[in-house]
Amino acid sequence: MTPRQIHYKHSTVNLYEGDFNDLLRKEIGPRQYVIITDSNVNELYLAGSSFKNIISINPGESSKTLGTVSDIYSKLMEMVIDKDTVLVGIGGGVACDITGFVASTYKRGLPFGFIPTTLLAQADAAIGGKNGVNHRGIKNAIGLVRQPDFIIFDPRFLDTLPENELASGFAEVVKTSLIGSPRLFDLLENNYTRALSRDREILAEIIAHCIAIKAGITSQDELDCGQRQVLNFGHTVGHAIEAAGNLSHGQAISIGMMMAIGLSRKLCGLSESSAGRIKSLLMKFKLPVEFKSEIIKSEIIKSEIIKSEIIKYEVKEVISKLYHDKKINGDTLNFILLEEIGRPAIRKIRADELMEFLTRIIH
Question: CB 80: neighbour CB atoms within 10 A?
């Protein structure tokens, strides 16, 4: 199979679609390999297979730490691998991020590839070369940019994806449409029922749009020095909410996008009708759209699936996390807003102005 390719300044990423078992064997060939995955994916797709040399980590953000990375380093040392050994990350964004980070740092760099198993990873996280871990509660505080050699997309993985993980992925899909493609936004509006029912044809079309948009942006600004920043739409506040409230990534980003839309109405002239369409689409994908500061019971905050579109948090926790955001430079930050659907704008905003705005609109 001839792969599609994403071309970067110093590397090329091969993209394959189909059965990951066959494609991975062909891509690795005679080379030694080590698979890094999480226990859920291991049990569902790798247990009993002919694949060996599997390192399994606990699923979820709690594993995305230097401690997990250190444990993997130790296991690789025990395996006595060489510089040509291929590391393969099979899983969601956590497994892929950790694999990319380990491969980029162990023995000063090993070849690696991804097999993303979640909608979030297939449509977003596996593309672009950002690899990293969280530290002291701050999302992706430590990391680097290095492209994988290959990415394999197998649509079967989405059949077993939990509902909350599917919704989390759609948050990034909606974000991608907002910063890159009115056509994709229209596709989502017109086909959200099919998408939620995991229709493979529409999901493949949606993912292809997302890959093309993110590949186009990241290939032009691989190191995040300029236009790549538009991919952070909804993430400045969203990451703070995620860290403060133990929300899923997609739920937090959905709220973060709605915050950014409020600022976009004020500072960029985003139309009321477009803001309404965005809010409606997020709700159709079962994502939260409001933020309230009252404390609610911890068991509800920590629930994997929050059915209501209204989620409440303690605002001071979110604001404290914002001060650690990587996009803040001194007392200002580059904040991504929308002039219209598909037309993002980068605006410099003082941190205190953002805090004042958040405190005013969070009720």
Answer: 8
Residues 94 and 154 in one domain: yes
* 333, β-bridge pairs: 328, 349
Judged by phi (left if over 0) then psi (alpha if -120 to 50, else beta), residue 63 lies in alpha
Contacts of 219 (CB under 8 A, 6+ apart): 6, 7, 8
pLDDT digits 0-9 by tens, 72-88: 999 999 999 999 999 99
Q: Quickly count: other Cβ atoms within 10 Å of residue 233's Cβ.
A: 27
Same domain membership, residue 194 and residue 58: no
Q: What value, to the nearest 5°, has the Cα angle with vertex 342 and ends 341 and 343?
A: 95
> Which CATH number covers residue 263?
1.20.1090.10
Stated pTM of the model: 0.89
Per-residue b/e over 41-58, b at no fewer than 16 CB within 10 Å?
Answer: bbeebbeeeebebbbbbe
Residue 156 covered by a domain: yes
User: What is the DSSP code string of 247-274?
Assistant: --HHHHHHHHHHHHHHHHHHHT---HHH
